[in-house]
Amino acid sequence: MTTIRQRRVGKGTEAAEDQPSEETNVKPPGKIPPDPPGGKLWNIFSVTVGGIFAISLGLLTSVYVATLHENDLWFSNIKEVEREISFRTECGLYYSYYKQMIQAASIQQGLHGLVYDNKTESVRTINILERMNVYQEVFLSILYRILPIQQYLEPVYFYIYTLFGLQAVYVIALYVTSWLLSGTWLSGLLAACWYVTNRVDTTRVEFTIPLRENWALPFFAVQIAAITYLLRTHLQPAQERLTLMVVFIATFLFSLTWQFNQFMMLIQALALFILDCLDMLPTAKVTWLYIIQISGLLLVCVLQFFNSMILGSLLISFNVSVLIARTIQKNLKKGGLLSRLGKLILHVLLVLCLTLLINKFIKKILNLESDEHIFKFLKAKFGFGATRDFDANLYLCEEAFGLLPLNTFSRLSSTLLFYVYGFVLFLLTVAAVIVAFRNLSGSNQAQLKEKMEEYTVTLKPDAAYSLVHTVLFGCLALSTMRMKYLWTSHMCVFASFGLCSTEVWKLILKCLHLYTCQRTQVIKYSVPIITLLYISFKFWPGIMDELSELREFYDPDTVELMNWIKSNTPNTAVFAGSMQLLAGVKLCTGRTLTNHPHYEDKNLRERTKQIYQIYAKRSPGEVYGILRAFGTDYVILEDSICYERRHSRGCRLRDLLDVANGHIMDGLGENEPDLKPSLYPRFCEEIKKNLPSYTMHFTRVFQNKTFHVYKLAKHK
Question: What is the domain extent for residue 663?
Answer without folding.
Answer: 556-712
